[in-house]
Amino acid sequence: MSAELQLRSVSRHFGGLKVLQDVNLTVPQGGIFGLIGPNGAGKTTVFNLITGLLPPTSGHILFDGQDLAGRKPHQITRLGLARTFQNIRIFKEMSLLENVMVGIHGHLRYGALGMLAGTGLFRAEEKRARDRARELLSWVRLDGKAGDTADNLSYGDQRKLELARALATEPRLLLLDEPVAGMNSTENTELMREIENISARGYTIFMIEHDMRFVMGLCQEIAVLNFGRIIAQGGPDAIRNDPQVIEAYLGREDDEATAADPAARDAALAPARDAGAGIAPVPGPTPVAAGTAPVEASRPGGVR
């Protein structure tokens, strides 16, 4: 399977603080890839570098073989890469349909003059945008609320709306930054189903998430970041049993203790194992298409 995204020896320093150090990472085309790690490991910084919000101090980031260095966020979006953020931001006074159409307008072929003149091309393109927006809303089961004001949605439905808007930019790679932050168990389970459906449609998904059950239940491959370095990469079973991963989450002394007490180790890693057993996920520590800046939702998610 070919690589969709590659990070080659990527580092990011803020003065003397080395947030990322020599990160090498390959996200394969197709499927769902996860990036996990303790708070402060540098996960969101990875996404900020990929989407052009920050430049790397050193190294290269390649998307479909093209170097992203020096590109602005909207240029990266046009290459086929979209991102959602930890904290929900929607156009709360607009309808769901209008929110999703915001992500589509970058692909429409008419200009300002065509819009002012109401040309045939303008009308045809607007109809195409509305039809596509309704289709994307149906993917996340919100098409029945297309005309509703976005501010009236539940918290979980607002996340789904943001996901639909990110898809409206027509990405090949979708970055999800803590998509279930602040969600209850029912919302969590529903979003897991929607992400699986989106992946089945051929989209590559790269997610950051703290909810181990969610990650282990969705991702075919997972990388673990700790103190700015990748310490492990592999399938869910390999990750949940990796000694370095256990140490990163439990600490060295706890790891030594659990070696003598398997019950303690099992309790500490229960969320990951439960996911492998098919137990429903629980909330963990979000979705706007790159290049938009609407209003933040009322229930906050933690910034990592």
Overall description:
The chain has 304 residues and is an alpha/beta fold. The chain is built from 13 helices and 12 strands. The strands form 3 sheets. The protein has a 6-stranded mixed sheet with strand order 6-8-9-3-10-11, with helices on both faces. The longest helix has 20 residues, at 120-139. Residues 273-304 have low confidence and may be disordered.
Helices and strands in order, then pairings?
Blueprint: E1 3-14, E2 17-28, E3 32-36, H1 43-50, E4 58-63, E5 66-67, H2 73-79, E6 81-84, E7 89-90, H3 96-104, H4 112-117, H5 120-139, H6 155-167, E8 173-177, H7 185-200, E9 204-208, H8 212-218, E10 221-226, E11 229-234, H9 236-240, H10 243-250, H11 252-260, H12 262-268, H13 270-276, E12 295-296
Helix pairs in contact: 3-5, 3-6, 5-6, 6-7, 8-13, 10-11, 11-12
